[in-house]
Amino acid sequence: MRNIKRRLTLLLITAMILSSITVLYADNNAITFTDINNSWAKQNIINVYNKGLMNGISDTLFKPLDKVTNYQALVSIARMTKAKEKYDLAALESKYKVGILDKYNVPSYARQEVAYSIEAGIIKAEDVSAFSVQPYINKQVVSYNIARAFGMTYDPQKTTVFLGYKDSMFIVQEFKPYIRSLVDLGIISSAGDANGNFNPTAAITRDVFAKMMDVASDKYNELKPTAPTAPITTTPPTTGTETTPTVPTVPTTPPTTGTETTPTVPTTPPTTGTETTPTVPSVPTTPVPEPDYTGTVEQVIIEYGTMVV
User: Fold this and answer.
1) In this structure, are strands 306-308 and 301-303 parallel, antiparallel, or unpaired?
2) Spatial CA neighbour of 141 closest among 67, 230, 202
3) Residue 161 confidence (pLDDT)
4) What's the pLDDT score for residue 275?
5) Distance CA 6, CA 18 (A)
6) Residue numbers of the chain with a pLDDT score lower than 70
7) What single DSSP character describes residue 12?
8) Tell me, what's the pLDDT at 66?
9) Angstrom distance (rounded) from CA 304 to CA 180
10) H or E element: which one contains 302?
11) pLDDT at 269
């Protein structure tokens, strides 16, 4: 009897150990990326991949230290904000096709997301023109884009913002309120890097961006913010008889009654005789006083509030 109990106990312990090993194996190998095991953002990378916010460079490589392009950032932000559920992306692509997408050679994988970002107020249409010159997005711009995706708007001229980073003076004034909002939401750190810097103009890497998107997506789902602008809606079909709104009539000029008299314009009286030009009195000249002394100042010394010449 005792042997049976021991065997059952051993089997139970073995099953528990195998179960825990299987869970750990599943967690660590849910993604086949072979280059993230030593990355500080490994779990964030796994999270954003499982959330559908970021893909790998290939099936086996994520390239955590590669730079993020403007187009890649907008694709991830569009996915985070569930753009497909809010907008008709095909209609938006058609809307901006000629003036923006074709004009600036937006790649096919990002055309709908760029159109959505313009429509939702995340970026400006003119921003796309600079993507070919500056293909990689920097930290202050991506922070601005994420904050705009949350529906945040500020007037930088009326909003006073304090950022504790050592290099805050290099952050564009327009972006400061948006960066402050992400700090308040816990999406980015208020302490900066190891040196206390924000590094606003540094190109953001894929591991840093994965961390930002992982935290931002959780916060976005928690807050469920609205987009800065309303989504496109199609015109519903007409039902029944529509009434044409009445256009107010412009009042006509009433007809004249009786004989109107034209006011007489007074004429300028003719000049009589010869006009004389008034004499302008002469201004007396002021005599120039003679100096008491003449000479050259060689040195002026100011000492204890007293001027010594």
Assistant:
1) antiparallel
2) 202
3) 86
4) 47
5) 18
6) 1-30, 226-309
7) H
8) 98
9) 49
10) strand 301-303
11) 47
Cα(65)–Cα(53) distance, rounded to whole angstroms? 17
CA distances from 111 to 35, 97, 101, 106, 119 (A): 29, 8, 6, 6, 12
Task: Give the Å distances, CA to CA, from 189 to 143, 184, 258.
Answer: 12, 9, 84
Distance CA 174, CA 188 (A): 18
Give me 259's structure tokens: 């004989």
- Output the six-digit token pair for 52: 């559908």
Phi/psi at 255 (5° precision) = -65, 150
CA 145 to chain CA centroid, Å, is: 4
Q: 173: burial class by Cβ within 10 Å (0-12, 13-18, 19+)?
A: exposed
Q: What is the pLDDT of residue 15?
A: 58
Burial per residue of 39-72, b for 16 or more beta-carbon CB atoms within 10 angstroms, e otherwise? bebbebbbbbbebebbebeeeeebebebbbbbbb
Which of helix, strand or coil describes residue 56? coil
pLDDT attached to residue 246: 45
Question: H-helix or E-strand containing 251?
Answer: none
CA angle 209, 213, 216 (to 5 degrees): 135
Token readout for 80 is 């985070």
Residue burial 203-225, b: 16+ Cβ < 10 Å; e: rest = bbbbbbbbbbbbbbbebbeeeee
Q: Distance between alpha carbon 291 and the CA centroid of its chain, in Å?
A: 69
The count of C-alpha atoms lying within 13 angstroms of the C-alpha of 132, restricted to the half-sphere facing its C-beta, is: 10
What type of residue sits at position 266? P
Residue 78: the pLDDT is 98
Contact 215, 71 (CB under 8 A): no
Q: What is the pTM of this model?
A: 0.65
Q: Kindly state the tokens that stand for 279.
A: 């004499």
Per-residue pLDDT reduced to its tens digit, 260-269:
444 444 444 4
Residue 10 confidence (pLDDT): 60
